[in-house]
Amino acid sequence: MLLAPVASRAGTAATAGDATRLARASALRQHRAESMLSAGPAPLVTNGDELRYANRIGNFSKTLRKNPIGEVDRASYDSMIRACESGHQADYEAILRAGPVRLKNPIGAYGFQFAGLDQSQFFLPAPPQFDSAAQAVEMMELYWQSLARDIPFSAYSSSQPLIAEAAAELGTSPERLFRGPASGALTGPYLSQFLLQPVQFGSIPCDARQTTALPGVDYMTQWADWFSIQIGENKGPGTALEPNVVRYIRNGRDLAQYVHHDWSYSPYYQTIWVLLSYGDRAYTENNPLMWSRNQEPYVHFGPPDAFDFVARAAKPAFQAAWWQKWMVHRRLRPEEFGGCVHQNLEQVTVHPIHPDLMKSRALQRSRAKWGTGLLAQAYSEGCPPHSSYPSGHATVAGACVTMLKAFFRESYVIPNPVVPSADGLTLEPWTGGTLTLGGELDKLAYNIAAGRNFAGIHWRSDMEEGVKLGEAVATEILRDLATAYDFDDFGGFRFTRMDGTEAVVTPGTGPLPR
């Protein structure tokens, strides 16, 4: 559905320093603040593990003090909770940690931002409980992902034995294995075009090859290494890299390596350059200046605006994720759960792990390869020292991709799609059907999130709920931005949500008094 051509009313904005304009700017901010306040707080619903287990086995405790079987010291855990609940720097400095590795900025859950809703106003459903069948299935998937790291995505078919076995146990097809649930993420090749296409950063040409991690090298598969990293004594030896070669992303290990070193919105910054190379046809049909005879989009609805959209969504997304991570759920990481599995297998103790996992082919395969129940990690340091739910990468991905879908034409057909060769050294034409801009953006979000799962540091629900959370964060920012444009008849932004439904984000207030 197209929005009608519009006439700007910006010409009524008098001269510099005009009091009427300042009054309108102030009224606009007050309207948006009142709207934010009227939304009220979100309900806080957890999976109950923190209260269910006195030894806190269901919750994140990396870098804290632990007993020899890996269970957190209660006083150490309580000191972390005290700091999270008070928000005072002195309490954070008083957390009883075991080693020199520091927690990843728990005070980041606090602080404020001035677009969209407050981070405390977003709802996130409870993750699976420690002893549930759902948690068992999520851990099975992670064991399979660790086993499949070096298998090219192009080989995901019933003819690849491990992929076929993994798909059968997880109840999916080989072609859909380890993918996100959005339609675009399930269409075409595994990798988004925006992780493969060449990028022209202004006058600087770049291709999408990267330094890659050595195949077959995994970490934290022995108890001594696992325990040392859990108590924060070290970060491991550093992930071993392939010397003298760069490759296009072609498998789970490469994807994990990519999201080991991306920062915040960098994948989406890169994507904007690709999208801009497609020209005006890639802009959304709802861009009001595309109808103008005398103005081309620039400050409004042009390249500077697109870069601003993506950049301004990233930190609020992180803050929303950090609120859930530190203030609400404090979910344990997969590597921590793997420690519990290992202790059960060694008959050191009995943790209440669902039997579906303990008898699974995934665990049997992993134990046969590495000799333990620990979850083999792609990064030598394992996960970062903050809790698991939701994934920060997934939340930022959901937010930034939503911004791009609001700005660019989702139906635009990607020209000259490609796939990496099995060795990642070249790109080959994709001839399996049409790929759309919107679908490849959805795929990009889930690729980025799944890369962290391939590394062994996040759960599937961290990924899926994180993307949804980011989408919600961006939607509320768009509501503020729609209001701030000040076009007479601008009807707002339209985009397709990850669940396939259409979103129409209208300005958050009616016309302001003049």
Proportion of beta-strand residues = 5-15%
Mean pLDDT: 93
Number of beta strands:
8
Question: How many helical elements?
Answer: 16
Which shape, going by the Cα principal axes? Answer: globular
Spatial extent as radius of gyration? 24 Å
Helical percentage: 40-55%
> Which stretches are low in confidence, meaning pLDDT under 50 for 5 or more residues running?
1-13, 509-514
End-to-end Cα distance, whole Å, is 30 Å
CATH class category name: Mainly Alpha
**Major sheet characteristics:** 2 strands, antiparallel
**CATH-wise, what's the superfamily?**
Vanadium-containing Chloroperoxidase, domain 2
Strands across the major sheet, in which order? 1-2
Architecture in CATH? Orthogonal Bundle
The CATH topology comes to Vanadium-containing Chloroperoxidase, domain 2
Pattern of helices and strands: HHHHHHEEEHEHHHHHHHEEHHEE
